[in-house]
Amino acid sequence: MEAFNLLGKRIEFSDDVMHFAECYGTYLVMKNGADRMLCGIYDEYGTFMNLVNQAETDCTRLIYQFAATLLDKVIDAGFYDLSMEIFLEQYVSRITRQLQTVTVCDTIVEKYMEMEQEKEEVRKYRELRKASRGRISGGGFGIAGAIGGIAMAETANIISGLGHSAVNAIGNLGTDAAAQREGQKIYQSAQTRQCLRDALDSDLYTIFRGWLLLLEDKFDMHFRIRCAADEERVDTVISNISQRGIDREEAADIVAELLLIDPYNDSLYRYVLLKFGDSNLELQQMAEAFSMGDRLNEYKRSVLQKIADDMPVETIADCEKVIECLSRSIQRNGVSEEIGEEYLAAFRKRIDTLDREMRTFQDVVYETAEQAAKARETYEAEQAELERERSTLEKWKGETDFTNKESLGLLREKIIESHFRVDEAGVYLKEIDNNLERIDREERTVDGVVYENHESALLAVRQKEAYEICRDAVFEELGKLLDAGRYKEAIDGLRQMEILDEWKPKIEADWNAQITVRFADEIAQSREYQKVLKEGGLKNIVMGAGGIVLIGLIISFIFPFALPVSVVIAVLGAAGMVMEKRKNRSREPAYQFVQQLIQYGYDIKTDKSVEGEEG
Q: Exposed, middle or buried: residue 273 (CB in 10 Å: 0-12, 13-18, 19+)?
């Protein structure tokens, strides 16, 4: 008899319960280790073919190792006459006569064969396996052979007798791409892996139950084995009371009764932890006794994790509040120092990170958050001042006439006096200087000539004005002669006038330009007259018509109608040129007038091709 104190209750368990609890703990540790090994082995298979070839052997080997470890504990106690065969045939076979792992391996093969539509072979294969594999019998190969990974003669004979059957169907995987894909789907299925794990779990529990029978026989020990009905009953009660506002005293009484029924129920431990906590570790002590210590620690960890996940952690104050809540939960639930420190350390680190962030500004870490805040405040004030400077510069620029020297000079002076710190001030000054330089250059430029200084430019302007006054007076007198048709007198008079020597060539050039504009229509007609005269000669007309007829004659060998068409074109072309020549006679007076002006001495621009011909 062993007693535990929990929630103010004394809960006593009989020896048969505690004996089972001790053995059950051993089983769970070994079972979990075997499960991890199977998962690793399964991952290494990689292909369906490897699964088919190796899974059964690997699973039976794990079962054998499990059974051997349990059996050694009894042999080490002095029972040297025990063997694996005795243990399996006399004790394990009393629990079950079928290995579930072997059955699942058969099912995997059958599933593939069904996909390949080998129905008759599936039937024969199923009968074969049912008759000869994975069964615990009183002698012969039996479960000892199966667990040892020994191939059975009867099974081998029946498989070979199937002929074109299971062996061939599985063999197709090596050469048939479609078969490989279907097999790979089975291997990669989470359901296939889980079925194999569940089967191994079942077989290991069978071995464990056989071991308990062995202990009863050899040590006269008694066990109260956990059963599914007790587990289901406790689960139902926990579900019902969790949904109702039962007071602590009534809940404690119910919990005490349920622990006597199923002290291995994880739902029960979780309920007690959430409702009552475990500050004095009484629940933890009981959980350890019934192999639920790890599961209870997982629940304790989940409570801390929920606090960590649900609470905000944006500020140091937030993190300090989380630490406070975690500390209360650690105390209330009796969380181990290792687990508790893991969570608390994470948020202390978060506080350190936030503190460093608060003390950091522009990659500089200050001693205090106040110093960092002061630096930030100073920086922001400086930025605001710089922004004000930019705004002022923009305003001043909008008010400035960039084509006016005085306006630009005023802006330049204001910027310099203001001692602006923004880079834009230098940019604006450069722009102002460029515009002042441009204006100064324009002021020193007269008729495309840039003078060295303003005095030289001013003198050039005055000379230009004097020239223009002289030119306008001369042109007024000459214009009167033109109006009277006295063209020769006009050009002769220009050349005889008393004008500064340096002005004479320019005035004469300007005068010829005036004449060209004034008689532009006559000059245009003269040029057209010369063009037609050049292109419309009899010689050209005859040559053009003859050329067209000749081309027509040549291509008439291919197209008979070409010759008459070319003759018609030649005649029409010649006629058109003759008519244009007659029309050109109306342009002759203009031509004669322009030629007369040239003879008087006027410099009139004519077409270069025409001039060349005349020459």
A: buried
User: 3 has which bridge partners?
Assistant: 12
Q: Cβ distance 204 to 86 under 8 Å?
A: no
For residues 267 and 238, what is the distance between their CA atoms, to the nearest angstrom?
A: 7
CB 600 within 8 A of CB 488: yes
- 3 state SS of 200: helix
Distance CA 271, CA 277 (A): 9
Tens of pLDDT, residue by residue over 49-63, are: 899 889 999 999 999
Q: Contact at 8 Å (CB) between 104 and 195?
A: yes
d(CA 259, CA 244): 20
d(CA 203, CA 98): 9
C-alpha–C-alpha distance, residues 123 and 166, integer Å: 10
Residue 476 parent element (H or E): helix 454-483
Segment 43-94, tens digit of pLDDT: 999 999 899 889 999 999 999 999 999 999 999 999 999 999 999 999 999 9
The two tokens of residue 411 are 């802006």
Please, which pLDDT band fits residue 431 given cuts at 50, 70 and 90? very high
| Tokens found for residue 478 | 């000459």
Query: Looking at this protein, which amino acid is placed at residue 391?
Result: S
